[in-house]
Amino acid sequence: MADYNYLFKYIIVGDAGVGKSCLLLQFTDKRFRAEHDMTIGVEFGHRLAELDGQKIKLQIWDTAGQEAFRSITRAYYRGATGALLVYDISRRASFDHLAQWLTDARQNAQPNMVIILIGNKSDLERREVTYEEGAWFARQNGLFFLETSAKTGQNVEAAFLDTARQIFENL
Ligand code: GDP
């Protein structure tokens, strides 16, 4: 018998270098990897969570370098019930590209996919995108929003688990 009642597939999208692999690693292993090594990019992870007494398996896919081509395939989105749309608060360009990522997601994903906007690297002093700008973009597009740090772990649990709760409520 399976050790969970529900299986939710998540995908993580956003520009290269915003911290997608690190968010995945922090959530599944509670670890942070400082060096940037594309070749050991995490591609896939999973973790069990419990919500309202129900055991949920979160199966998480990371783009692992495909974002260089800016065209994540339809197959990647197939069956995804949750998406983390990530930018880097210290890199303006990654915020400016969000609209494109969102268009992509809306074209390829199932209509009820829950999307949370993540402003990652909140531990960094030098920011190029304010919290208010992130919150505004999220509000305009009907997304949930959190700033996280894959380095300190701040809000990483919340990002994945709040999304799971939302998916659960939509069932
Ligand atoms: P990806 O290409 O989006 O998967 O990005 P990575 O997860 O490989 O991270 C890119 C770089 O940013 C790496 O050098 C990480 O160590 C660093 N990084 C990722 N998340 C954070 C964070 O929350 N804070 C800080 N300070 N650095 C981070």
Automatic annotation (TrEMBL):
Belongs to the small GTPase superfamily. Rab family. This is Uncharacterized protein.
